Each structure stands twice: as C-alpha cells, then as structure tokens.
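Holo prediction. Input below; ligand is alpha-D-glucopyranose.
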Amino acid sequence: MKMVRYVVVCAAILWAVACAPKSEVDRKVDELLGQMTLQEKIGQMNQLSGGAWVAEQARNGMVGSILNCVDPAEINAVQKAAVEESRLGIPVLVSRDVIHGFRTIFPIPLGLAATFDPDIVEQGARISAIEATASGVRWTFSPMLDVARDPRWGRVAEGSGEDPYLDVQMGLAMVRGYQGDDLSDPTAMAACIKHFVGYGAAEGGRDYNSTMISERSLRNTYFPAFKATADAGAATLMTSFNEIDGIPSTGNRWLLKDILRDEWGWDGMVVTDWNSAGEMIAHGFSRDLKHSAEQAVNAGVDMDMMSYGFIQYMEELVKEGKVSETEIDRAVRNILKLKFELGLFENPYVDETLSAQVDYAPEHLAAAKQAAIESAILLQNKGGVLPLDKVRTILVTGPLADAPYEQMGTWAFDGQKEHTVTPLEALRKEYDVIWEPGLKYSRDKDKSSFPKVRAAASRADAALVFVGEEAILSGEAHSLSDICLQGAQSELIAEVAKAGKPVVVVVMAGRPLTIGRDLANCDAMLYSFHPGTMGGPAIADLIKGKAVPSGKSPMTFLHDAGQAPFYYNHNNTGRPCNGTETLLEDIPIAAGQTSLGCTSYYLDTGYGPLFPFGYGLSYTEFEYGKPMIEDADLTEDDVIMASVELRNTGKYEATEVVQLYVRDLVGSVVRPVKELKGFQRVQLAPGESRTVTFALPVSELAFWNIDMEYVVEPGDFTLWIAGDSDSGEPVAFSVK
Ligand code: GLC
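Structure of the complex:
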C-alpha cells in the first residue's frame, strides 16, 4: 500500500511540474527554439574572442557570444550583423573578464577579501558593472571562487583566499553587485562563478596541474561558494582547466549534471574555460577535437569558449547519434534564456556616448580608494612608528612607489594606467618627498644606486620603501616556486635600514609573499596586495593617519614556500605539533633517531605560519574579553548566541574585524581544528567598548560526514571570538 501511495504522489508531482505555467521567458525560448535549424542552434553554443571580424559569423548565425571586445562601436557592429542581418536576429552575448573593476580598478580580489567587508565588495562589483555595461559588456567571468591554500599558485590573486566561509561571503557580494535585482536592467551584468571546480588545489601550486580532491573535500571545502552563489541566482558558471582524479571538469558529467543540475537544481548557463574542451586532448581524456566536443556537451556544457570543436563537429556528432538534439536543445535553451533575461532582444545595442560619462566617475574613484584603504593589512608596527604624522621629510624609494601599471595588478585589462594615482604622487601632497627609485622594477638586481638611496635616507625623517611584485608575476600561468621578494628588493630594504631612520615597508603583491626576513629590517610593514587605481591616495591616508588599517589576511603568510600548502582550517593529524619541537640549529650532534620527538613540523621552519589567517594590526589596540555563550547545551534547531566584550584601549578610532571560529571536537570523519563561521566589522572610538554578538544557527555546523550526508553531528564543540584565527579564549558548548 505504501508503494502505491508513493507512486501516486510522485506522479502527481511530475504532472504538476509538467503543467506548471511556463514563465514568459521559457515561452519565448520555446517559440524561438522551434524555429531554429540545427546549425543555428550549434551557432549559439559557439563563443569567439574578437570584435568586428566576428560580424560575418554573427550574420550567418554561427556565434552566440563574443569576448574581449570592449569597443562600443565594434560591439554594435557585431550586434547589428546578428540582430538585423541574420535569419532569426538572435543578439550576441558580449563578455569580458571584469574581475576587479573595468576602468576604475579596485584592489585585486585577494585584497578585496582582506577587507572582510562584503558591502564594499558589492559596491565595487556594482561600479564595475556600470562601467562595463556602458561599453556594451553584459557578461563578466567573475567571481572566481577557487579556494586556494598555496601562495605559489599565481591565481590566488583572483580569489578570496583559503577559507570557504569568506569565499561564500565575497562571492555572494560580487554576484549581487554585478547582477543587481533585475538582469534586464541595462547596467546589470551576468555573473560567472568559476572555475568549477577545485582549480586552486593544483599540485605544487603550479597552474593547470592535476588535483586530487576527494568527494568529501569537494563538498566541504570547494563546493560551498559555488552552491551558495548558484542558489543566489548566479546566471552562469565556467568549467575549470584541471582534472580531478583524472577527470577534466569540462568533461565531468558528475559535476555538471549530477551535482549542478540534479542535486543543486541550478538552471543557469555553463561555459567552458578558454579551449578547456580542446585541452582534454592534451589531458589524454579526448582522442581529438571532435571527441572532446562530444564529451563536453554530453557532460553538460552549454557554450564552447574558443575550442572551435562545437562549431566544427557538433552537427556531425548529432547525425552520428553521438550527441542527441535533446542535449543541443538543453544547451541552447540555457543560452537563449540568459539572452532574454538580459533584455538583449529588446535592447541589443549600447549607447556609444555612455562610457565617457561613467568611466572613472568621482564616486567610483572614491569607492575604489575606500576599498584600497580597507584591503591594507598592517603586519608590523614596532614602536608605533605609523602613522607618520609628525614628520616633514620622507624618502620614498622602491620599484612599486611609482608603478601605475603594476599597481593595478593582474586581470586589469581595461584599467588605464594614466588614471592610476601612485603612492609617490599622493605622498607628495602630504610630505616633502625625496624620491630615489632604488630599483627600476621588482625583479631588478642592479644595486648601483643603493648608496644614493642610503644617503637620501640619512637626509629624511623617515623612509618609505615600496616593494612587491610586478602585475605579471601573479595571475594565470604565473606560479612561483619561491615567493620571497624578487630581485634586490630585500637588499634595498636592508640598505635603507642602515641609515638608522624609521623604515616603513609597503608591499604591493598578488599573493602573500614570504617577507619574514624583511620584517627584521623595517619598523613597520603595510601589506596592500595590488590596490588598484586609487592605491596611492589610500596608502598616503594610511601612512599619514587619516585612515587606520583594518585589513585581515585572507590567506596564511608563510615563513617559507616549502611550508605550502598551509592553511588555518587544517585537520589536526595524529601527531600535532606540541611546542616541544627541536629546530635545526638546536639538534645535538649524533642525535638519537627519535630524540627530537615525532610530531608534525619542519626541522628548519618549525610548524606555525609567519602570520595566521585573519591577522592584521591597527594603529589602536583592541582588547577582547572571554567569549560568552548564552546557552551551552544546544540542539540542532537552536541558535548559538555568542558574544564578547570588545574595547578600544588605544588612541585611534578604528575598525576591528571580529571573527567567530568553531571547532567540532570529534566527528565521524576528522574535522578541522578551526572553521570561520562569522565576522563583523566593528568601529570603536578610543576607550569605547561594545558587546559584539553572533547568532549562529547550529545548522551552520553541518558537514558532509562518513556516510556522505550533510548533517550536524551531536557532540562537543569549542568556540572562539577573536581578531585572528590564532588568538582568543576557547569556550565550550555541546549539541545534543
Ligand atoms: C582564461 C581564464 C579564465 C578567463 C577566460 C577568458 O584562460 O582561465 O578565468 O575567464 O580565460 O579570458
């Protein structure tokens, strides 16, 4: 009887779905799809890089989307060919990598993550969309959601670092900013959550390298931001270059159909990465381009970015029965749905006068400056050297002090360096500046001008040394096996220090570099990643004390690249470091085999990081009380009410990013030693204190367990509320 009832209920549900009134968009898609030839359908699945030269293919209905054209006139020319001169007049979808700004460049995404401020990140994405859509771009390949735990990987610059929770918050903020509330708004830009999935786990931190990620690690670490942004309505998704345990994502049916469509119920559009379908040949997964096209579309890909495999072989594959027209219709339906939702059929063209009105608008530059201020992390400030508010003459030196192109960082295609305001330019408005570059670029090894720099430092009240990375040293395909300051930059810092004046080092980079030895040669260090167009004024305000640093590290800072991958939310191992470890220089001669103890650490660099995840100082001091939990005996349906007394005990008004961490002490699978579960930006005046409260639903403690079920397991937990992942007093609670 039960089975009969079950079948009846299922049948009723299926009937209800089948009869559900189609949305207006779905009706339009069905109507258009019914008029299309197989060739025209395949044409929609083809994305080409270029502008005016693509007009011919658009006229013939052989291209559904273009990328890398941002000239409004060229875009309108291609669009005219598609809309007015092709048989069905289907508009082309114009796309671009708008990753951290279009014309007004914001800090690189890793710097945006360091703000721990979703509001400023959303504002930046909204501004990016306003500027990019004014040039005709309606689809961006952002946010990049790849959790990354290895700073040797150049693409850590483009993501939100090592923590899944921060990744979720930043990804949601960007999708909200890009897409707004209505995709048909002319300033709305379809987001693209990428790279699905696990790309940041490339072995050795070497880009495009293999990844070996278990299903449980995918679900607990790499999926969360994709799931959250997919649920939040991200319009598109991009497959990743990497293979996971031998299966390239672009041909991975489990990922693109079983998880994305069946389990998550996501109905957006899937695009490959650049030729990632064709690269399955190099992977050894596809025999040839035709085979790769068959595998990609049958796995669930809708649009092919630049492999030319779909446009060349899909018709043949359908005729040979290797790809069904049902698959083709599924893909084209997703593409057409997006075009209707963006309003492209009603408004295909861009006003060619618009970009001049919106690019670099004062309010855009102001937002970019604020983001750059909040993204800067104060790593060291011996003796309160900063802010430099009592000195008159400063030396400015170093290859990043006046590098307008480098300051924008990677993936800043459309930022114009002429608009960049450098630190040198901004500091000249605040101080009497002695300018001695010292080195021409970050890899420069020519130390011939060092004596001049040192002499200049002697004449100054303080010295500012701007070091870091040229933009090209991070981003795609730019991995480094050693992540110390390149060239003679460390020597430049040491040379300046010899003058005996206060030394402030400012780092602009695309990753957390191993700057431990440089800390010893300076009084203060401000780490600003690549801060974008307004990095100069932001840094000048921070140096002068007009602004106070609040940034926190979104990735662990290592002593040495050899420690990678290293991340705070690691498992404990069976032999965790216990602080009794013997380091290299302390090992006795002929030491006995087990005399050093047997725990998980390095003989040379020990165990811990240089700076932990979530770390960042202020010009003021913040004092945390012991965290309190209202009710420490909870059930799965409860909300944990945790609070802490925070006091500003220093002399500057400042903002603290208060962080909530939890540890599940025992699980059916081992659990991380800490997991970020919340954060709040709290501004306090000197002497002010405030009770900071977190309301954390117990359901947020769920994880994928031994049975691959997403559950909260009862047991004992520990909670911290602190200023970084390595601080704070623990407090216990339990879940029944
Ligand atoms: C690149 C990147 C991807 C980008 C795409 C288009 O290779 O992997 O992130 O969106 O190609 O430029």
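The domain at 622-735 is CATH 2.60.40.10 (Immunoglobulin-like). That is the main takeaway for now.
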